[in-house]
Write a structure and sequence with these properties.
This protein has 107 residues and is an all-alpha fold. It folds into two domains: 74 residues; 29 residues. It is 88% helix and 0% strand. It has three helices and no strands. It is rod-shaped, with a radius of gyration of 27 Å.
Length: 107
């Protein structure tokens, strides 16, 4: 599993968790309205404010997860894509040089 798949899965978990939290917030606010603790307008404002706060925190959470994941992969010695691309280029050049030398020997 590459780091993009892992990050994508973590983001999806975050989105799923956010959806569950949103549903619970809606249920709680409906209960408070039903019990007379809040009027419908207050409940809507409460839910909207809380969801806005969760959305802003989710963005920073995703950034933190991405940074930590990169650090863990680096600590494990997993090369970055740019490093792999550079190595592939070097390997291609070496293979080309070997073919050129072999061709010179057979002439």
């Amino acid at each position: 599993m590459d780091s993009n798949d892992l990050l994508r899965q973590l983001v999806m978990i975050g989105i799923g968790t956010t959806s569950l939290v949103a549903e619970k917030i809606r249920q709680v606010s409906e209960e408070w309205v039903k019990d007379g603790n809040l009027n419908p307008e207050q409940a809507k404002k409460f839910a909207d404010d809380l969801m806005q706060q969760l959305k802003s925190e989710q963005g920073s959470w995703e950034t933190q997860v991405q940074r930590h994941l990169k650090n863990v992969l680096q600590d494990m010695g997993v090369p970055r894509q740019s490093e792999m691309d550079e190595l592939r280029g070097r390997l291609d050049r070496l293979e080309r040089q070997i073919r050129d030398l072999e061709n010179k020997l057979w002439r």
